[in-house]
Each structure stands twice: as C-alpha cells, then as structure tokens.
Amino acid sequence: MNRPILQLAIAAAVGTLLSSNPVFAQKLPPAKKAARVTITQGPVLESASDYLTFIRWITTNPGGSDVHFGVVHYGTDPKDLSQTASSKITVNRGHRETMFRVRVEGLKPRTTYYYKVTSIESNGKSDGVESPVSQFTTPGPGERFAASKLPWPNRQ
C-alpha cells in the first residue's frame, strides 16, 4: 500500500517541477523596432583613470530585440577609430529612453583618444544611430576623475 502512495508522490513532484520550469513560460515577441533612434543625451565621459574609462549616452528606445549592445569605436587618431569596446544591455520596453554605458579598457596614461558611439541589436543589426567623433585625455598614472553628471533617462 505504501508503494502506490510513493509513486503518486513522485509523479506529483515531477509534474510540479516540469510545470514551474521557466523554459515552458511564454516568451514575449520582440517589440516593434523604432522607426528612428536618436541620441538624446551624450555621449559623455562618466569617469576615467589612467587605463580605463566609462562612456555613457542615452537614446530613444530602439525597440526590436530585448538585447542590445552599446558600442564605442575609439583610437588615438580621429580618422582611425578601429578599436572597439561594447557592453550588453537589456532594453526595458516600458521606458521611452535607453541608457548605454560602455567600459573602455587598456588605455595609456596622458593620451588623447577619439571616439564615437553606436548601438546594435543582438543579431548585429545597427540601431541606425551614431554620434559625431568626440575626444578625451586619460589622466596620469594612478590618477582618476569623474566627469559627467548626465542624468538617468526619463521614466515616463
């Protein structure tokens, strides 16, 4: 008599595990891709040290896939921005704007760098927005500074 109860308990446990697995949860379809994405604030240098910096900017919500990448193209020659850094973000469909923040590493102290920013979907397709070329100079060895007071996106 205990064997049927044990089998029933095992079946119930397996059923519970399978029905609560997130793999079986309904996934939302991609949001509608924005007709035009624009940079609304920035890009700005958020902070910098002698070997790394953070660059931040805000765009209108690009829509499309939930996963996007902020991309910084940079170099020491404004005509050769062949180095890249990127950062993955998840777009919040409920917000009108999206903030991108990218960490750029491996920089040299007291060196002027030129950069421009863009963003892409997880499939590599461009969001169709690109900033003009800007510049910054890294501080000396061991030094650091915070540069930006760029606010967070509007949450309306």
Notes on the protein architecture:
The chain has 156 residues and is mainly beta. It has a domain at 39-146: Immunoglobulin-like (Sandwich). Helices cover 12% and strands 44% of the residues. It contains one helix and nine strands; from the N terminus they run H-E-E-E-E-E-E-E-E-E. It has one helix at 2-19, and strands at 39-49, 52-60, 67-75, 83-90, 97-105, 112-121, 126-130, 134-137, 144-146. The strands form two sheets. Strands 3, 4, 6, 7 and 8 form a five-stranded antiparallel beta sheet that branches. The protein has a four-stranded antiparallel beta sheet with strand order 5-2-1-9, with no helix packed on it.
Measured on Cα atoms, how large is the radius of gyration? 23 Å
Proportion of helical residues: 10-25%
Head-to-tail CA distance between termini: 62 Å
What is the SS-derived class?
mainly beta
CATH class of the domain at 39-146: Mainly Beta
> Major β-sheet, in short?
5 strands, antiparallel
Mean pLDDT: 81
Order of helices and strands: HEEEEEEEEE
Number of β-strand runs: 9
Question: Might you state the CATH topology name of the domain at 39-146?
Answer: Immunoglobulin-like
What is the CATH architecture assignment of the domain at 39-146?
Sandwich
Q: How much of the residues is beta strand, in percent?
A: 35-45%
Overall 3D form: elongated
Uncertain runs are 152-156
CATH homologous superfamily heading of the domain at 39-146: Immunoglobulins
Number of helices: 1
